[in-house]
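A further point concerns the way the authors explain their paired sequence and structure data. Each protein is reduced to its one-letter sequence and a matching series of backbone shape codes. An entry of this sort, consisting of the sequence and the corresponding backbone structure tokens, reads as follows:
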Amino acid sequence: MNVLFLCTGNSCRSLISEAVFNHLAPAGWRASSAGSRPTGTLNAKALALLAGKGISTVGYYSKSWDALPLTPDIVVTVCASAAGETCPAYLGPVLRAHWGVDDPSHVIGTEEDIDAAFEIAYATLRARIEAFLALPLDVLKDDKARLKGELDRIGHLRPGVA
């Protein structure tokens, strides 16, 4: 099963999602990330955060959804549409879910404020990915409606809240 984490720039939230998912995923499940308008570079703070958590980003790069090597089975948008961002709409025939997360790279403030925003984004995405991977995936992969419902429910989870 292939999961695509999608946002506009593919430099921060989708990168974090891809790296965390691949770090935790069982055999046979793989994530990639892409953007509708990729920045072409990965966010240095996101890379440092992942390295600090022991999560590899070797081989990752900011890329367009036009450059995907294969069609994903599931697309999860991670932009924060409630914050006024425009979420890209993936147009392939796939299962879609939205897990909006505020972009920590847009936070203005002290270094502590910015670091806290990155930690919140990471914790939110990790909690959602852990919840996704805790589902009975062997059963749900053949029940798309139920899987969609679970993915939508997970999109509302906050760290430390079930």
